[in-house]
Design goal:
This protein is an alpha/beta fold and 471 residues long. Helix content is 44%, strand content 13%. The chain has a seven-stranded mixed sheet with strand order 1-2-10-7-8-9-13, with helices on both faces.
Amino acid sequence: MNKDMSYEGVMSRKNEIMKKAVGIDYEVFETEGIRFDYEDMMHKTGYDLSEIQKAQKETGVGNTPLLELKNITKLARKFAPNGKGARIFIKDEASNPSGSYKARRAATSVYHAKKNGYKGVIAATSGNYGAAVASQAAMLGLKCIIVQECYDSRGKGQPEIVEKARKCEAYGAEVLQLTVGPELFYIFLKLLEETGYFNASLYTPFGIAGVETLGYEIAMQFRELEGRDPDVVVATNAGGGNLTGTARGLIKAGADDVEVIGASVNLKGLHMASDTEFNKKSFTTGHTGFGIPFATWPDRSDVPRSAARPLRYMDRYVTVNQGEVFYITEALAQIEGLERGPAGNTSLAAAFSLAQELDEDKIIVVQETEYTGAGKHINPQLSFAKDNGVDIKVGNPEDEIPGENIILPKDPSLIKARNLDLEKIKKSYIKNCIKNNENIKITQEDIEFLAKDTKASKEFVEKTIDDLKNN
C-alpha cells in the first residue's frame, strides 16, 4: 500500500516516523496530566558520563583548553567600581574537530546511531550542528544528510549559513538547502521515513548528555587550576541544549553552587521563523530568536519531549545587542590574539559586563567558543546587513533596534548585559503547559513537575495557575 506523501499525509505520521528514527518510545515516560518523567527519560535512554567521555575521546571531541583572558579582564576592570572586575576565562570549544561545542552533541548521537545499526544520520540545522554531525558521521563511516534552513523566499542566504553548508559538504554530507518555513520539517520527516536513517536531533537525551561532558570538564579543570569551582558560568542560549547539558555536567561534578547565566543576542521584534525578517538578523549561530520561545515551550522541537529544558537550570538570563558582540569579537582578536565566531562571543560580551559586577577574586567562565571563517567574520556579516537595509553606526548600543540598525559601541564601557524577567518567562512556560493540556485536571504531581521544570517553588506555580484562572 502506497503511503500518502503529501504534506498532510506525512505530518499525520510524524509521531511514528520520529519513534522509529530516534529509537525512543516517549510514551513510556508520559503520565496522566502535564508532567512526564524527565529524569527517567534522561537516565534510561542516555549513557553514563564515562561512556560518553570514552566515545567522544575516540573521535577527538572534548578535553578542550581553558584559557584566561587577562587582557579582556584588564579592560573590564577599567570600567568597574573599585575592587570589582572578575577574572574572565573561556572554554575553547573551537578546538573540537568541527570547530564548536556541538561536536559533543553530535558525537553522542552518531555513536548511538552506529551502535544501533543505523546506516546513516539526518539533522535539521542552520549549520554548526550540521557540520558536527557530518564530521562525526565521516569518522564512523555513516551516511549523512543535512537539511538546512538557508534562504528567504528571494533566494538570499546569510554568508554564515552558506559557509556552513560548504563545511558540511566538505565532510561528505549531502546538504539540502531550503527556504524558511514549514517545508523544512516536512522534508525532514519525509527523508527520515524514506531512508530509515537516525534522527540526530539536537533535542534528544543523547544530544543533551553529550554536552554534560562540557560542564563536567569546566569543574574538573578549575579544581586543578585554581583549587575550586568557578563562581559563574555564562552559556549562550537558543534551543536550550547548551545551557541544559552544561548545567547538568556541573551538577554531576558536584559543582552545585555555580551560578548559571544564559545569554542571547537581543532580536526583540524579529520573529524566529519569519521569511521577511530572516535576513534582518545578522547572527545565525544560536541567535535566531529561539531563546525565549524555546524556554517558554521546549516541546516545540522536532521530538515529542525535548531534553533541553533550560528553565530547570538557569539562575539568570541576559541579552546583549548585535553591535556589542561584533565589538567584543574584534577585541578578542586584537587584544587576546584569538579570532573566534559569534556564538561564544555573545556570552563573552555578556561576561565582559557581568564581570564588572563581581569582586576581583571571583571567576566567570564563558563556556564555549566556536570556529571562525570567511562567512562568520564580522565584515561579511556587516556587509550583508547593509545589503538588507540595516544601518551600521557607531554610538550607544542602547539605541539599537533589531532589524533596523546595528550600533557598534563607541566605548567598551557601553557594553551592557541586560536582564530579562526570568519570573515572567517561567510564568509563560506554565501558561503554555496549561494551554496545551486544557482538558486535564491539574494535580499536585503536576505542580511539583512544573516547579522542577522552572526551578521555582510550588507556591510560585500555584499562584501563577490561580492568576491564570482569574484572568
